[in-house]
Amino acid sequence: MFDFFVEQILGMQWLNDLVWYVLINYFHADQNSNWWSSAHFFFYDTIKITILLVTLIGSVAKF
Question: Helix-strand-coil percent breakdown of the chain, rounded to 5?
C-alpha cells in the first residue's frame, strides 16, 4: 500500500501515464522518438509544476 502511494501519488506516475496516453492516442506519438519524448517532458513537467505550485500556494494561503 505504501509503495503504491509513493509511486503513483507522490511520484505522479498517473500523470506520466496520462500524458503518454494523450500523446499516443490523439497525436499518434512514438515513444521512441526524441521529438515526442521532448514533447512529453514539456507537457508532463508543465502540468506537474502547476499542480505542485497550486497545492503549495493553496496550503500557505490557508494560514
Answer: 85, 0, 15
